[in-house]
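Researcher: I'm preparing a figure for a lab meeting and need a structural model of a single chain. I don't have an experimental structure, so a prediction will have to do for now. The sequence is pasted below. Please return the structure as C-alpha cells so I can convert it later.
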Amino acid sequence: MKLNLNLKKKFQRFCLGLICLLVLIFQSDIPNLKALTMDNYQGEMVIEELRLKVPADVKAAWLNAEKEIWEPWLSSQDGFLGRQLFWDKEKEEALILVNWKSKKLWKNIPMSEVNAVQQKFEDNVKAALNIGENPFKLIYEGELDKQR
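Model: Understood. Here is the structure written out cell by cell.
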C-alpha cells in the first residue's frame, strides 16, 4: 500500500512537471528563438540610412558637396549600387539612402577612409559657405534590409 502511494505521488509530480514544461514551451515566442541575427544576412543587399539636419539656406552647398565629394568616392567602392538623396523642407532634414550589394562589402570599408572623406566633405562645405564648422548635424544612422 505504501509503495502504491509513493508511486502515485511520483506520477503526480511527473504530470505536474510535464504540465509546467508544456506551459513554458507554448508561452515562449518560438519564432524569436529561431530568428537569425542580422550578421547572418551579410550576403544580401542592405541600405544604409542617414538623416542630417540641412537648413534651407545651406541646402545648395550640401547638394554640391554630396555631388563633388561623396558621389565619386562612393562610386569607386566595391559593392556600391547607388544612392538617393531626399530633403524635407518642413523639417529641414535630409534623408540619404545608400544601396550596398551586401553588408559585408559595406562594412569592409575602413572607418578611417570614411572619416577622411567626411572631413573633405566638411572642408568643402565650410569653404563654400565661409564658415568655421559643419552646419549639417547627423540625426540618425542605421540600415534597412530589403523585404521579400
